[in-house]
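Ticket #4471: complex job returned nothing on first submit. Input attached below:
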Amino acid sequence: MPEAKSMAGGNAPDSKTAAVSSGKKDLSAAEERRKVRYHSLEALYRKELADHICGKRFIIILAIVAVMTVASVYGAVAGIHGAIDAAAKDSKQTFDSTFMFLKLYTMSGNSIPSYMSLIALIGPFIGLILGFDAINSEKNDGTLNRLVSQPIYRDSIIVGKFLASATLVTVMVFSTGIAVGAAGFLVSGIRPSGEEVARVLIYLVYTVIYICFWLAMSMLFSVFTRHAATSALASIALWLFFAIFMSLLAGIIADAVYPVQTDYQQMMNGLKNANLNAGLNRISPYYLYSEAASIIMNPAARAINAISYAQLVGAITGYLPLTQSMLLVWPHLVGLLALTFVAFEISYVGFMRQEVRSS
Amino acid sequence: MAEEQYIIRTKDLTKAYGSKVAVSHLNLNIRKGEIFGLLGPNGAGKTTTILMLLGLTEPTLGQASIDGHDCTRDSLHVKRITGYLPDNVGFYGDMTGRENLRFTARLNGVPEDVIDGRIDSLLARVGMAYAADQKTSTYSKGMKQRLGIADVLMKDPEVIIMDEPTNGLDPEGMREFLELIKNLSAEDGRTILVSSHQLYQIQQICDRVGIFVGGNLIADGKIGELGKKIVSEGHYVLEVEAEPCDDRFLGFIGSLEGVKKVSKEGDRFLVESSRDLRAALTHFLGTNNYTLLHLRQKGGDLDEIYRVYFEQAEKEDEKNAGSKEHGRRKRT
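Support reply: We reran it on our side without changes. The output follows.
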């Protein structure tokens, strides 16, 4: 990491120049370095953002997001209508109209999944599309070695790319999330309460972090693989694994460790089995995010772990206030952030240590 | 005193990848304002040397400096005053030539009000003004190289390093390109380091060259001096043709002291030896009724330099191809 060294160079006590030069000179050198960092990062960030927005890829993402949003709003509204109609006809069925606005995001209808489950499944794809060829395509095009020979810190390349893509993810998630609410509001006339708005915004923040994890993951693959196709396939494979196979695997392992075939086993191992299953599942960012989202968007959900009947005795049905819901999913936020940072950190270090040669 | 005028200096610069030594104890001194040709066959370690000069890879041993700034520790400053035109320079294909240059200018912190004027003058200088607003994905190889020069000049560098800049250019494009490089030194007084395996083309514009084979700088100096150096190192090649060309003559040559190898090339004998044989030969021919048709001491010319160093290295290269060389050279 020659850049890292040169960064420290001015302050290093063993550096000859630092020993000779006055404090004032050091100050101006530090100022100079900050300026270099700022303008190069800004130039890279702007270029990446412009690249994304002007590229064909952006159209694909927009199409995916638009279809997803429209379909889920349609499904949710139909689902809500269906539930209300059913309650009106049949006196045994009741319709709970509290937190109606949140149902726009969580309700599925006409066999169209809800916005929440759609974005948990498809959202990663947006991150993958933005990141899978971040580094290796520049290497293959020969632009990277031109870039690293400019007087910039090498890390501003990867940081600039990540920040630009993350900006795009944020804008996209918030605009579609708010669009869902607005469309639902217009179509069904459901008015959001303050708490509902807060819950939706928190949910969208979680979504941004979740998609940024996939962005960091695909950038990681782009640092360590030579071809864009390889990194795209690798990140899609990982996505499928977490979205589909991880829960199967967790179930198999939990059943193997704590078998629950007989009634006796069920009694002895039931709780342990459920806890191990959930614990293993929470390795997967898909599960982590889905769990957090369902708690945030469904105030009636009171726990994330298995609860025994005994624990429910005497409990009064009611809704959790926002602060209590947040208490349940705080670890999820930390977990998702940590996963994102780890993925980005590995690609960062890998990129800084790589030797960039011309093809 | 004399040391002051060197702008690029390396001292025992060494780079090893595992057990393979790519560059071995390189001591290179390049004067301000000269064009230095780093010549050597593929895989000789030229690119590795350049990467170390730019601080893009850390040397295993030794150090390099440009204009007094350590290339590894102070690479940011080195990159500010050094322009690098890599082998197979690439541009962002969906941006125009002008936009690519503007991006480079911003990375270099060139003030916004200066950028456009500088782009125009540089594009005119490299003869690319006509294609400035085309996307670079439509550019030919030669056009990319020209834009590459403009890109390098964007930061107004004191030193320009070019890696195999003439690869893939047609003869006419090559001639113009070399002219352009020459101008950068002659008119602007910039120091230029050119690496190439195309000895013949590059030597036309170089003030000095260094011959780089297998990670070692085996000779450096002016082309003319290099030839003499090779000769003085005890390697003589003599071309001789005589009438009649019989076995007795051949036997005599073989019996001479210091002869390493005799081979026949058409009607001529090619004699490699460790000392000057001309006196002995002419004496023999004169006293034995031979007619001397041709006698030429080779060496001192490019042919010889090329033959001695490059062909040998390329043969080894071919031998190694497929094994360890394969992985390293097939970099993308």
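Chain A has 15 helices and no strands. Closing as resolved unless it happens again.
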